[in-house]
Design a protein that fits this description.
By secondary structure, the chain is α+β, with helices and mostly antiparallel strands. The protein has one domain: Aminoglycoside phosphotransferase (APH), C-terminal lobe (Aminoglycoside 3'-phosphotransferase, Chain: A, domain 2, Alpha-Beta Complex), CATH 3.90.1200. Helix content is 47%, strand content 15%. The protein contains 10 helices and 10 strands. The protein has a 5-stranded antiparallel β-sheet with strand order 1-2-3-5-4, with helices on one face.
Amino acid sequence: MVIRLKGAMTNEVYQIKWPTNKERSRKVLVRIYGEGVDVFFDREMEIRTFEFMSKQGQGPRLLGRFSNGRIEEFIRARTLSACDLRDPDISRLIASKLKEFHDLDMPGPKTPMVWDRLHNWLSAAKSMCTVEEAQALRLDAMGKEIETLHKCLAADQRVAFCHNDLQYGNIMIDEDTRSITIIDYEYACYNPFMFDIANHFCEMAADYHTETPHVLEYTKYPGLDERRRFLHVYLTSSSGNQPNYLEIDKLLEEVEKYTLASHLLWGLWGVISEHVNEIDFDYMEYAKQRFQEYWLQKPKILGSIELKDSSILTK
């Protein structure tokens, strides 16, 4: 039996199931790579990450590869739903697991990739768009926006191995043991760990299993108490030390700035995907929503910080 799994937007993912005897069956996951998406990441690096994570007991085993995809172990756990991210108990489990993920010593250069990735994706998006599309999306302004963000965030670049795509479809839970598994490492690389948390918060606005999976509802962005609770669990999960409110709020301020980088990154992803990917998803409308949220939130989050740093940009 072949079942196509919904919610995947970079690849096509299938569950393959066949009987082994009257009472048992076996399942594997088959991932067919999306057309043209190699612009986003290095497939060989992704496979190395996949194998490393498997050896660390962090994810499924790689069972086989073919020219445009691979076969993975099927994890006997449930993929989270959009509403699960708002469940306080599950959110605590995710926060703890994310800290464990960030503490992994993945081999390779430990330099943050988000800024190069933003510039590279912007260049790719510009090369694919018509003049009219680029003007409507304000792509010519994006280079300066990326530099502004980079300058504002340059003082705190605490780097960890990040997943970078922590949406609910990439998180699984074993209902019996309550253990969390983070899967799908296409976009994983070293980055400021605040970016990973910010991106996770932004994903709470999405539900990719509706009739309009591209539509984002930012009223679902986690409230202040939710964000503080997540960060408190994250900071205490490995050390056991209890952070004070000042530490949590300082980290929260940095995380909020990185939501702007998340909006730009995934907005550019949407623009590029519109031109290269055949999956049934309104990538361009998704991109417009991410950019719209960026422009809406930028003055609220940066405020006087951007004005203070403007002198840096003109030197």
